[in-house]
Amino acid sequence: MTTFSVTVDSVAAVEADRHEVWVRLADPNTLVRLTPLLTRIEAEEDTWTWHLIELKGLGTGITPVFTEHMAFDAESSIVFSHRPAPGVRERVGAEGRYDLQDSPTGVNLAISLTITADLPLPKSAGPAVRKVMRRTMTMMGDRFSANLLADLPPRTAGRRLEHGR
Asked: E strands of the chain, at which residues?
């Protein structure tokens, strides 16, 4: 097994009330509806277990299931860190945060996400693996952004999340 990691940062100026954005980010059922490839989230207080569809590439496949500790600062930030149950080994994990700040036109939303995966591939496959991971994360981010904007009240218009490279 080799460990591979990719980080994607996104920012958006969203013409919406901060509360409207917050309730969508803090609700596991809404996140499942808005996030492509995500099938369910099992939420127990500040521990959320995320389930994705099977992802295939480079001759291997994985059905990510990972447990995150979620720290909520109401309508300001959500910080998440990979924290599987004691004795449980998860091949995929995430670290990151959502930050919301008021702006003159609504709310600024910043998202930082690092995905780490242990895969049965050689270390030399790193550039190809990271390329596939980044492409998948960017697609998910683009579709999440579009779904979030479409889900906000009609007065909302916004820009698509811009992904850092």
From this structure: 2-15, 38-44, 47-52, 55-57, 60-62, 65-73, 77-82, 92-103, 106-119, 157-158, 162-163
Q: What single letter denotes the amino acid at residue 58?
A: L
Domain range holding 141? Answer: 2-163
Hey, what's the torsion of the CAs at 99, 101, 107, 108, to 10 degrees?
Answer: -60
pLDDT in tens, 122-158: 999 999 999 999 999 999 999 999 999 999 986 544 5
What span, in angstroms and rounded, lies between the C-alpha atoms of 31 and 108?
19
- Give the largest CA-CA distance in the chain: 50
How does DSSP classify residue 152? S
Q: Which of 19, 5, 6 is nearest to 109 (CA)?
A: 19
Q: Is the pTM of this model over 0.85?
A: yes
Could you read off the pLDDT of 41-79 as tens digits, one per residue? Answer: 999 999 999 999 998 877 778 899 999 999 999 999 999
Q: What is the DSSP string of 33-45?
A: HHSTTEEEEEEET
The total number of structural domains in the chain stands at 1
The enclosing domain of 100 has a CATH number of 3.30.530.20
Query: Quick one: DSSP state of residue 46?
Result: T
